[in-house]
Design goal:
- By secondary structure, this protein is of the alpha/beta class.
- It is built from 26 helices and 19 strands.
- An 8-stranded mixed beta sheet has the order 12-11-10-13-14-15-16-17. The chain has a 6-stranded mixed beta sheet with strand order 1-2-3-4-6-9, with helices on both faces. The chain has a 3-stranded mixed beta sheet with strand order 5-7-8.
Length: 668
């Protein structure tokens, strides 16, 4: 029989060809997109490719099919822009049916199907390659595999649950899905998600060709891993998984990981049954408020990342490689060390030799925690330089001041260093309470000064407020955003107003917690109420973490501190500043607050939480109306990523709008 081996004519997102050795190649290069994601059209086109391959394979006209990417990433997951169409469980099941059938057909093709992976292979992309016979990944730094779905309030829904268990075993697969961890290629190979590694992406095509010709087929998990699917062991594993998950998140806030554990515990002994039950458990999660709100949070994060300019004039030349930080206290040292972790060189300046030594020691602790190999740790150590006299300042691309919050001291410093800066270098202050316009007074070029307000702890909090003073030039603001994204943080452009955005919105919440404490509410009850609402920690514990002196200063600066003597000012006067002194609202031991055991009625905690959160919501609305940032969405983004405001609620403004809509519906 003669077959038509010409490429499929109407493909927009894939390129399909058959080479002289009768190997079919499907190259995913989604039209008009910088990143490959699986949406309706790419899946429909892949269906056509698989149908063509099936036709040719029946008579031996092709020896195998290779899936590759034409971009720097493989497949970053499903196209979540299309998720909003899924408004009912039945709609979810209807939409899932064709891709589920497609992956089954890929799995059953009579010729080998090989996935050649370079870049991100996440979520639905990983589910697709798990349906292939053989998976090859390169060892390049940008290649990662993982299941991030729980961060969107769901779990893998294209039968990735059963295929990952089949390939990696239940312990490895469930860990990958429950933690949303991104695996490096070597680690992915070690647990069974990948079958073969090549050094660079240049070797992928040749390796895929050999895999097809040798009819490679993955053996899947070994017998020891498969034993864990047996009933008694499976129940024990599920119990341990549930226990670890409860230690991290509340089931009423984030149900997806718990439903995944339930699915495994009930059906993990029979993967065929688990396959059909996966969709039944997945559909309600997809249409839940939690998933909708977490998808909103993902979009907000993408919005923040877009703050950095892409192709604006004059920006292409700015490549921040060297950072000079003045002030080796906790914030300054952590900023410098984080820049080093992000691949830059950082010099740290301080008048105190002792403070410099402490700063370098903090950096080395971070390197050990964040960098895997001793070689990487040693290289990072060499890139963090003590610079007491500021010799590296003239070479720096970014200069950040992080000294004491005193206006005259900052003004004097900036006047002194202005002449020493190289042309084009970003000049920034990490002030949390002073006006940029005041700090810039006396500078020959005040338009150069911008704010870079980091949050403590720097390694953990992803947001940096890029502060635009009335005098700040727009190109300096945009260069600062480029720097923030270069160190893997999210930039939020804010006006130079007291408290900027995050402290302005957070301070009323913290001051309300002080007022509640003074009114007789137990500290444990206050913090439990906030945690039940969804905050990462209670406000009193948070204040102890930040430092009560700093909280008191911010409260007074914003005019929110209670009149006269109060608990906060008294603790500060007594030198009880929180975690850093060992005592504040709590006594701290081994880095943890000592709490009294106490349980309260859920209704009581809900009422108290509403009282605590109300000032935060009110101030978020005022910040939006005062245009501290450009939109209400950016208010929500800043408060979520700067304070940890319950992500599953979608942000303070979104939460209030949702609550108002629900109240109106009840009243009607």
């Amino acid at each position: 029989m003669i077959h038509d081996k010409t490429p499929l004519p109407d493909l927009k997102d894939w390129r399909f060809s058959i080479d002289v050795e009768n190997i079919a190649w499907a190259i995913f290069d989604r039209e008009g997109e910088s990143v490959n994601s699986l949406g309706r059209r790419p899946l429909e086109e892949l269906d056509a490719i698989v149908a063509k391959t099936e036709e040719l394979a029946r008579d031996g006209a092709v020896k195998g099919l290779v899936l590759m990417s034409g971009k720097d990433n493989f497949i970053a997951g499903a196209d979540i822009r299309e998720f909003e169409e899924f408004d009912t469980e039945e709609k979810v099941k209807e939409v899932l049916s064709p891709p589920l059938e497609l992956l089954d057909r890929i799995e059953k093709l009579r010729v080998p199907v090989v996935a050649a992976i370079h870049g991100y292979c996440l979520g639905g992309g990983l589910e697709l390659v798990l349906a292939c016979d053989w998976r090859i990944a390169d060892r390049e730094e940008g290649t990662r595999l993982g299941f991030p779905e729980v961060k969107l309030g769901i779990f893998p829904g294209l039968n990735g649950t059963i295929r990952s268990i089949r390939q990696a075993g239940p312990l490895n697969a469930m860990t990958a899905m429950l933690t949303a961890k991104f695996y490096r290629p070597t680690a992915a190979r070690a647990i069974g998600l990948v079958d073969q590694l090549v050094p660079t992406h240049h070797g992928l095509r040749w390796a895929a060709r050999k895999a097809v010709l040798k009819k490679r087929h993955s053996k899947g998990a070994g017998w020891l891993q498969r034993m864990m699917q047996m009933s008694p062991i499976r129940g024990y594993l599920a119990g341990q998984m549930r226990k670890k998950t409860k230690a991290k998140v509340r089931e009423d806030h984030y149900p997806a990981p718990f439903r995944l554990i339930d699915l495994f515990e009930q059906y993990g002994g029979d993967l065929k049954e688990m396959k059909s039950e996966e969709t039944e458990a997945f559909a309600p999660l997809m249409v839940s408020d939690t998933s909708r709100n977490l998808r909103r949070v993902f979009k907000l994060s993408e919005m923040l990342k877009a703050e950095a300019p892409k192709q604006e004039k004059g920006m292409d030349a700015f490549r921040p490689l060297r950072v000079h930080v003045i002030g080796a206290g906790t914030m300054g040292a952590d900023i410098a060390a984080w820049c080093v972790v992000s691949g830059m060189q950082a010099s740290l300046q301080d008048l105190s030799e002792e403070q410099l030594e402490k700063g370098l020691a903090r950096g080395q602790k971070l390197f050990k925690k964040r960098l895997r190999s001793k070689r990487d740790q040693d290289a990072a150590k060499a890139r963090l330089v003590a610079d007491p006299h500021g010799k590296h300042l003239p070479r720096a691309d970014v200069v950040i001041e992080a000294i004491v919050e005193k206006l005259d001291v900052k003004q004097s410093l900036f006047k002194d260093i202005e002449e020493k800066l190289k042309p084009g270098a970003v000049l920034a202050t990490n002030t949390s309470s002073l006006k940029l316009e005041d700090i810039a007074e006396g500078l020959k070029d005040p338009g150069r000064l911008i704010g870079l307000h980091f949050f403590n702890p720097v390694p953990q909090l992803p947001l940096v407020e890029v502060v635009r003073g009335e005098q700040s030039r727009e190109d300096e603001v945009r260069k600062a955003c480029l720097f923030v994204t270069a160190i893997n943080k999210m930039p939020l452009i804010v006006r130079s107003v007291p408290g900027f955005l995050v402290n302005r919105v957070l301070a009323p919440y913290m001051m309300e917690s002080v007022a509640q404490f003074e009114s007789g509410q137990p500290r444990e009850k206050i913090d439990q109420a906030a945690e039940k609402f969804g905050m990462p920690m209670g406000p009193l514990e948070l204040m102890d973490m930040v430092g009560l002196d700093i909280c008191d200063h911010v409260g007074k600066t914003l005019g929110l501190a209670p009149e006269g003597e109060n608990t906060l000012s008294r603790l500060v006067k007594e030198g009880k500043l929180g975690k850093k002194t060992g005592e504040g609202f709590y006594v701290w031991k081994d880095g943890k607050p000592l709490r009294e055991e106490a349980e309260y009625e859920p209704e009581e905690l809900d009422r108290l939480a509403a009282e605590l959160i109300k000032p935060l919501l009110d101030e978020a609305e005022r910040a939006r109306d005062d245009h501290v940032v450009e939109s209400g969405d950016l208010v929500d983004a800043g408060v979520i990523f700067g304070t940890g405001f319950a992500p599953f609620r979608g942000g303070p403004l979104h939460y209030r709008e949702t609550q108002n809509a629900q109240d109106s519906a009840v009243a009607a």
